[in-house]
Amino acid sequence: MATLPLRLILSSVLLVFILSALPAARCDNEEDNLFQGINKYRASLNLTALTKNDNAECLAGKLADQFQDQPCTNTTGANTIPGTENQLPNFPTLLEKCHLNVTNTRDGTIMPVCVPNLVPSLVLSNYTQSAIYPKSLNDTKYTGIGISTEKDWAIVILTTSTPEGGYAPASSDNAASPSSRITFSFHLFFLLLGSFFYALN
Ligand SMILES: *[C@@H]1O[C@H](CO)[C@@H](O)[C@H](O)[C@H]1NC(C)=O
Ligand SMILES: *[C@@H]1O[C@H](CO)[C@@H](O)[C@H](O)[C@H]1NC(C)=O
Ligand SMILES: *[C@@H]1O[C@H](CO)[C@@H](O)[C@H](O)[C@H]1NC(C)=O
Ligand SMILES: *[C@@H]1O[C@H](CO)[C@@H](O)[C@H](O)[C@H]1NC(C)=O
Ligand SMILES: *[C@@H]1O[C@H](CO)[C@@H](O)[C@H](O)[C@H]1NC(C)=O
């Protein structure tokens, strides 16, 4: 029989983990909405749906981390003037973190969007109605997609089914699974552990 303080500690641990799982869930929702919105757009153009690419999602996550503290301006995100995208000096490092390199990513396309509070309808229209991005979304060569959102930023990466844009590491170290999934299992584990101890009481 657990004593009262122990029970208190366990329920607080449980509560903290449930609460810390919430922002991740909100973020996943934004990403799923955008994923579905983009595939609806593809369907309206009679194009095949894009399938999720975990390595592209990994890279999108690293890029979103980098962009998140930049404010939206009329030259960021979908307003970028083609050819003037700031070249990230640490891009090769980010690729490496996702087990990628320039050889298997060069035919893909990276599309950052900056929308205050990531209003879902504006985020989607920045992809489907801006000057530069619809052309890529309307391209049959793209078959895969990776999405990440952070603060006001959304990053969408389109991948091809060729080796040059497939975002697929050749080796078996396909360890670039989305960290959110790991975090979620982690929370779930503690949730189950918590319920277990609760049941013991
Ligand atoms: C998509 O296909 C349908 C039926 O085949 C056709 O009616 C429609 O015009 C097509 N739309 C586009 C955008 O190509
Ligand atoms: C961006 O905004 C600034 C000031 O608000 C303006 O001077 C500039 O011309 C704008 N640039 C573009 C590309 O619209
Ligand atoms: C893109 O998002 C901005 C907000 O950052 C909004 O003002 C603009 O209208 C959007 N553009 C399109 C084409 O939806
Ligand atoms: C999509 O691409 C097709 C073929 O290149 C073109 O006919 C069509 O006008 C494009 N649609 C949009 C909305 O860009
Ligand atoms: C990139 O990765 C692929 C697959 O892992 C490998 O075959 C290729 O040699 C690498 N290229 C460079 C430039 O590192």
Automatic annotation (TrEMBL):
Residues 31-158 form the Uncharacterized GPI-anchored protein At5g19230-like domain. The chain crosses the membrane at residues 182-200. InterPro entries: At5g19230-like, At5g19230_dom. Coiled coil: none annotated. Keywords: Membrane, Signal, Transmembrane, Transmembrane helix. It comes from the Eukaryota. Pfam families: At5g19230. Residues 1-27 form the signal peptide. PANTHER family: OS07G0645000 PROTEIN. This is Uncharacterized GPI-anchored protein At5g19230-like domain-containing protein. It comes from Trapa natans (Water chestnut). The lineage of its organism: Eukaryota, Viridiplantae, Streptophyta, Embryophyta, Tracheophyta.
